[in-house]
Amino acid sequence: MRAAAICLGIALAASCPASAQDVPADLTVMPPVPTDFAPPRTSWGDPDFRGHFPIDIIARIPFERLPEHGDRFWLTQEEYAAQQTNGDTADARYEADTQAGTLGYRSFITAEASGRRTSLLVSPADGKLPPLTAEARASYEAGRSSWTDGVDFDWVSDFDTFDRCVTRGFPATMFPHRYNNGLRIMQAPGRIVIMTEMVHEARVIPIVSRDDAEAMRWPADVRTWMGQSIGWWDGDTLVVETTNIKTGDSVSDDHIARGPSPLNLATHGREPWNILPTSEDARVTERITMTGPDSLVYEVTYTDPQVFTAPWTARLDWTRDENYEIFEYACHEGNVQIRNYITASRAERAAAGGGDR
């Protein structure tokens, strides 16, 4: 197995829009995605998903469930009320922004049923990622990235693809990060495009029949950071399957030997999953369902038997906001981080009498 990038930058606490799904009485139950909404149609007859979908509103949901939430998919009313209080406290520190008409923290957690989910993961039911295989665990522990404490940096091959402004990888790019969490969906006959604000990666997905999808697959040795995505309609739900995800890093063989680029799954749950590997067998299945005039439910199932001992599934709720704008994402320009890490590490080694590696 060669290691690779999927930088899932995920933070901390919210849930799904009330228009998409109500919180059940039994907080240990995750209801199925509603399918009773009839979406508007494009001029060529497909469900019309077009628009801007900023997912900051779910960027504070833990990726993995915290121990104190036990087997619950949902927060209690008391826990939710505490979040709202915390939101009020945070907003008080940004009163000038509020007066200027911008949204504060509390607005994000109360605008929808959004503070009520305990994790993005919905399977396994315990809200935890499945255990890593022994080989994946070794690769994870050998990984090098600015997200990893104690790494001695000497050259660009000591950094992951996100550090170097190359990519967050897939499916990481579909998950919220600390900032730049806008998504834009565009459609044309036979195509759907999902563009991300972070790194400005555009997934151009052909829409075919399910029977034709596998015949269109690239040869196994043709790979990209985002993989090859092919979609089809299952009723009004868009299904996208992605294979041929790049494994390893093109910078140097030496870097591959050192460890993976990151699947930066920065959760504050059980473990700081900063640099999870990817193998040639990775396969991602996404299901996107419109559940209201401005709401979509996004489900993603990740299968990689060389890395995880079982598949896992996350569910995210997207809300359309046409006032949201995606501006230029400039990362390479003025990116002094890589040089600073290297020069600082070299200076520390010189001071300790170690010199360069």
Explain this structure.
By secondary structure, the chain is an alpha+beta fold. It has one domain. The chain is built from seven helices and ten strands. It has helices at residues 77-92, 95-99, 105-110, 134-142, 210-213, 253-258, 337-351, and strands spanning 51-52, 121-123, 183-188, 191-196, 202-206, 228-234, 237-243, 283-292, 295-303, 312-319. A six-stranded antiparallel β-sheet has the order 2-10-9-8-7-6, with no helix packed on it. Strands 1-3-4-5 form a four-stranded antiparallel β-sheet, with no helix packed on it. Strand 4 (191-196) and strand 5 (202-206) form a beta hairpin. The longest helix has 16 residues, at 77-92. Mean pLDDT is 81; it is low at 2-20, 108-114, 249-264 and 266-272. Residues 1-20 form the signal peptide. Keywords: Signal.
Task: List key phrases describing it.
357 residues, alpha+beta, six-stranded antiparallel beta sheet, four-stranded antiparallel beta sheet, globular, disordered N terminus, signal
Summarize the structure.
Residues 2-20, 108-114, 249-264 and 266-272 have low confidence and may be disordered. With 357 residues, the chain is α+β, with helices and mostly antiparallel strands. The protein has helices at residues 77-92, 95-99, 105-110, 134-142, 210-213, 253-258, 337-351; strands at 51-52, 121-123, 183-188, 191-196, 202-206, 228-234, 237-243, 283-292, 295-303, 312-319.
The span between the termini is: 27 Å
Count of folded domains = 1
Going by helix content, strand content and strand pairing, the class is alpha+beta
Mean pLDDT: 81
What is the helical fraction, as a range of percent? 10-25%
Strand content: 15-25%
Order of helices and strands: EHHHEHEEEHEEHEEEH
Number of strands: 10
What strand line-up does the widest sheet have? 2-10-9-8-7-6
* Mass-distribution shape: globular
Signal peptide: 1-20
Keywords: Signal
